[in-house]
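Posting this for the archive.
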Amino acid sequence: MPDAPHVVAVTTLLMTYNHAGLIEQAVESALAQEVDGGHEILIIDDFSTDDTGEIVRAYGDKYPDVIRLLPSEQNMGNPAVRARGTRAARGAYVALLDGDDYWTSPQKLRKQVAFLDRRPDCAICFHNAIVVYDSGTDEPHPFHSQNPSQRLSRPVPPETSTLEDVAVGNFMQTSSVMFRNGLIDRFPKWYFEAGILSDWPFHVLNAEHGCIGYIDEALSVYRVHAGGAWSDRISYYQDPKDLVDIMAIYDRINQHLGFRHDRRIRKQTAYLAARAAGLLAEDGLLAEAAVHARRSLSDAPNLKGVRGRMRLEVLARPRLARLHSKARVARSATRGRLSQLRANRPLRK
């Protein structure tokens, strides 16, 4: 439960770490909000090693009636910082804002409060966002769209989603989320082990207390930059370790929810395990690949796609996979020699 009573309508929980070049835009976008019933901005700097701490302290000195600082005395990581900030929030509602993102409408919080006031069945409310790439390699685009084609995009969700929907995957951009304060009585131990992926289990814990509402307006910017661990690395699904970490969270969520949504969750882990098996096999780590291939086959026994299933069944047995790999190399070498012979064959008159 929160440590303080609800004395304002909204707490903006602004979490930041090494965002010296970006944090001012985030803070200014929070200060610009027009909120009825009071608004506090709770800033937690998680022991930054750049100038972020100095910047937020200057804002705290300038706006002491609005901004409250709760700095970390050591780097705590996302799960612990969010739990700490949630407990300390004094607002009836809490809005999340990452220090490298920003809000684009001064009406953002007011619109979400109105939605949650109108929908007492909802525990969470979120909205669309614009994805902006600091590198300039991609054009900005909506996070939610009818036909998403970009890596960092999702389909437009329905106006109301459920616990089951978020249990099988996170579809909310962090800085678009507002939730009712005080829903989580106690944070389970497994939540603190989720690392930078903790947003998703955090939403699951809140969604146990009500549904999830969606506002189809882009009211924030999700900034993609080299310092963003999820957008810059994990979302590519190219590192087997990242895939293992995601599967571990699926397993903890599944267990936490009493396996009520086991079939849908295992369908997701089957896909991730199959991908991990393929990546490990490409690196020649066939024993490790076999572990994940067997998990994929077990989690989704009716996996569609004959070629995909046959490959998993091969990878599930390292000795067979080695033989298959040697045969493939031999066939490739034979084709190469035949091509060379044809290329050197004299032309007939």
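The chain has a mean pLDDT of 90. Residues 240-332 form one domain.
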